[in-house]
Request: fold
Amino acid sequence: MSETVQNDAEVLKLRAEQADFFSDREGDCPYVVRRDGKELGRDGENPGPHVVLGVGVHGDEQACVEAVIRIIQAIDNGDLRLLEGSVSAILGNPEAFRLGQRSIDTDAGRCFYKGVSTDIVEGRRAVEIMQYIESIRNELALIMDGHTLSTNDIMMLVFNRENPANEKLLEQMPKVFHMLWGYIRAHLKGAFNDLATAYGVPGYAVECGQHDSPLAVDRALFSMKCALDAGGVRYEGEFPWFNPAVTQESLFCRNLATDQCITPRAGFEYTIPDIGNGVRIDAGRVYAKAGTRRYVAGKSRVLTMAYQGGIPPGATDAGFLCRELEKRGEFFGGGESDLDQAVA
Reply:
């Protein structure tokens, strides 16, 4: 991060300033900052492709918020000039972000679907954002959702492999990722990036490393630059600086496709010693428990998105079990899914 914070008061002050950055500049939707290019689109009638950069869907993740603020500041300062297209920066869960906690009532990253309850904070915020996305549907070109991790300090690309637009996107993405994780909607209902599927455009999330990684902001900036490029937004000038080390190709990338969402029961905890993305669990192994119940792997699978230090309040899942694929192209070829969760 760009600042060294010394205590809780300074952390909350910084978070308040970052949240206020959005609220002070918001337009048609609370905590959404939109910037448009100076030229009309190629048809001469509309502003061109519109890329949405979502951040802070989980309130304890700060790096991507800082990164998108730097981009908006560069545009406002004239250092970065949008020529064609639009950018919307969306603070996903402002109330939780101000408090520095993951959520208020439930995981905001599972609330972006029609009929979500508006009796909860995250549900009301999701409705606001979904209405905004609908208002720009004719311009919408791409949705990127920025995150960081509680475990491994790696870059991970997360996408719905049932969205046909993501197949081409995967070909465009630089090979900087240590892990590609393709899910199906049944396993990750309500993900922010999956709003793109209904509009026929690419949508994905980028995990930019651990929350406090010194490279997290740099990875977020590079990922957002890639999103603007992939979405067709044209710009000139000086993009906010990021460490060029984050642009280096990964020597090894694992391709993981979800087979199963791990649903936590009361008292859920992992029983395996090392929790993290990419941990292999052999068939028949007990990997978690909840009271007297035991979670057993039905087949050899790879664990992703497991929480380190316990399941946070409001979490609807405890992680996912995945198949490992040999090639990127296999993500969109179907295959088994929704394996029964073995609970003894």
Q: What stands out?
A: DSSP finds seven helices and 17 strands in the chain. Residues 256-343 form a domain with the OB fold (Dihydrolipoamide Acetyltransferase, E2P) fold (CATH 2.40.50). The longest strand covers residues 140-149. Residues 1-6, 335-344 have pLDDT under 50 and may be disordered.
